[in-house]
Each structure stands twice: as structure tokens, then as C-alpha cells.
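To close the section, here is one more complete example, presented without commentary so you can practise reading it yourself. The ligand is adenosine-5-diphosphoribose.
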Amino acid sequence: MRTQIAIVGAGPAGLLLSQLLHKGGIDTIVLERRSRTYVEARIRAGVLEPGTVDLLTHAGADGRMRREALIHDGLAIAFGGRIVRVDLKALTGFPVTVYGQTEITQDLIAARLGHGGKLVFEAENVALEGFDGAHPHVSYESGGQTHDIACDFIAGCDGFHGVSRSCVPGSALTLYERELPFGWLGVLSETRPVDDELIYSRNERGFALCSMRSKTRSRYYVQCPISDAVEAWPDDRFWDELRRRIPAGAAERLVTGPSLEKSIAPLRSFVAEPMAFGRLFLAGDAAHIVPPTGAKGLNLAAADAGVLAAGLIAYYRDGDRTGLDTYSETCLKRVWRAERFSWWFTAMTHRFDDDAFGRRLQTAEFDQIMGSRAAATAFAENYVGMFRAG
Ligand code: APR
Ligand code: PHB
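Output:
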């Protein structure tokens, strides 16, 4: 078997890359370890920057999003009885789009299959070889047989726990990492959201977030110890804790219901540099992780796919290698801006045990956003993803 680009992983990064390359006349094969049903059901992020919406549009996978997504002009940050609304649209000219990563994944898979795209689900023991030379290839097992794909380039889009990054010699990568001592417990429920916009709430008991997937489907999170098991959080305990951490008005409006999904995610900051090695390019969570507080993970994955697709299209169309040679550097600028923002927003809104100095700093950060249009604008620019290079 042969293709131009072998893509490992059918998350948003791999699927969007495959679809953008298809639009540019480039052939790909996507290898995914999990089943299609599993990939399409996974509950993940839900806030899209304007740039991500543009990429999905360019990929021709925006039909359902245009019909179903919610456009949010602003969001609220609540802080011990006070609330500031950040008017993203007024401050930056752009709103954000609320639409689930689950739906994006479904839409991209449908788009790929609709165009005859080659997606291999349940591909086992994927192995990347020869990418430090001129003839990379990828092997995998499926239905008890071993297959081999020769290609020009490999895109490692297989997430944080994937195989691609670990194939790069350790001496060629520098890893930057910070783990946080807590996680987010998330619940999805078929209930009316407490508000029309998202509420990020910093509370003495810990952080909480009120988000949504539609006008009838809510997504809520509470900060919890990373050692907690989901079983320790029956629905009633979750709703009681959430109610205690969000502003009084929202707590009164809160409609509870059975959880459709409940999971605990660790919070971590991680970057692997560089994002390219020979003919292998890492994209999305395979190369970097942000804590979810700024909603940047999915948007970074999409941005990487956009930069890589543009570089590959220029290479095949004009023989121009510039985009590929600068891929890592270009992506890492955005990545580090997002790492900084996500770290800062997490530090400002979460409970860190026994840190009285830190708590005072959190208040000062909040006062700054509340009292300064310049500070609110800087926040809004980061949130909508207006990162300029340089
Ligand atoms: N072989 C093939 N596929 C693999 C392998 C492997 N060895 N390991 C992992 N995968 C698959 C996973 O099953 C998953 O479907 O790679 C895919 C990676 O997808 P994501 O984890 O969604 O990563 P990415 O596409 O970079 O998207 C990042 O996802 O985790 C969220 O917050 C994050 O929103 C961000 C987005
Ligand atoms: C979500 O809806 O899942 C969500 C929203 C905003 C975040 C993180 C997650 O910052």
C-alpha cells in the first residue's frame, strides 16, 4: 500500500488534517487504534475559536455546526460573590462558537467517508519507521494481518498517549511539563444550562465551570482531587458540590438530571519540542497538552492541522519546503501563548491548598480584569485565540 501522507490517530487533528489535505488534492490514510463507535462517542471539549471555525469551513465540514452551534459573545468569571462579564465580541470583534468536539469528530468522519477517504479503525500495533530518511513507512495489524504503508510523510496525531512521539529518539526532543495536583470531574446532562453563556467560577471550595453543548444539554465541571474515583461522585454529590461553588443566581436556576457521562480528567501542561523530526510531524495532543481552563486544546490541535496542511500543499504544488521547514517553529509560538494563558487562567481560578499568598494574588488578578479594560481585552484576545506571531 502507498499514500502520500500516513496519519496516525483519528482525533480532531488527524481527521481535520486528512480532510484539508484532501481539499488540496493530497492522498492520505488515517490509522486509528479505537473503533469508529468509540471515537464518535468520546466526550471532550466544546469551545471553538474563530480560526477553528474557519478551518472546519475550509475543510467543508461546517454544515451541521452552522445549524446547531451556539455563538457566544461573552463569558462570565465569578469570584467569591463578584462576577465580571468579559464581552469577547466588543473587546476583540470576535465571539466564540460552542459546539462539541464529539460532533466535530462525527462531522469530519462523515466528510472523509463521503469523499471516499481511507480511515482504518481498530488498527493495532501501529509502528512508524524510516522517517529519519527518505522512505518512511507505517505498519499496523488489522483482522489478524500485518499491513505496511509506504508514504512521503507521517503525521503523528495520536494524542498524548500515542505511539508517534515515543518513536522520536529521546535525545532529539526536549520535554517541558508541569502536572497539577487536581483534576476536573465533568458531567454531561440533558438539562437546560444555567445561563446563556459560560461561567468560570473560582470558589473557596474549588473551581467550577458551567458550560453547555446546546440549549438543552449542559456540561459542568468541578475541580476534584486527582486521586478521586468517579464512583466516589454519585450524581447527587456532584450537583450539591456544583451548586455550592457557582454564583447564587446560577445555583438557584440550576436544573439537575441524570448524568449522561461522568469522568475525571487530569490537568497538565506539556510541550515536546520540536514538533517535527525528519519526515514525521507531530500535531495536537501528541505534541502538547494544556489544562482545559482556557479551552485551548482542541483549538491548538486544529491550528496545527491547518499549518501542516498548508505546508504540505505548498510542497506538493510548488515544491516549496518553507512551510514544512518552519512548521514546528510556527506552531510552537501559538502553543506557548496558549500554554501561558491556560496556566495563568488555571492558577487564577483553582484552589491550591494552604496557599494564602496565592489566594491574594488570585484576587489581585481578578480585580485587574474587573477594573481594567486593557486587562479584560488581553484576556479576551487570548480566549478567542487572537495570537499574532512575533
Ligand atoms: N495508534 C493509532 N491511533 C492511536 C494510537 C496508536 N498507537 N494512540 C492513540 N491513538 C488515537 C486515539 O485513539 C485518538 O482517537 O489517536 C487519537 C488522538 O486523538 P485526540 O486524543 O483527540 O488528540 P487530537 O486529535 O490531538 O485532539 C486534541 O482532544 O484531548 C482533547 O483536549 C484535547 O481537545 C483536544 C483534542
Ligand atoms: C467544555 O464545554 O467542555 C469546556 C468549555 C470551556 C472550557 C473547558 C471545557 O474552558
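Once you have examined the C-alpha cells, check your reading against these statements. The two ends are 42 Å apart (CA to CA). The longest strand covers residues 174-189.
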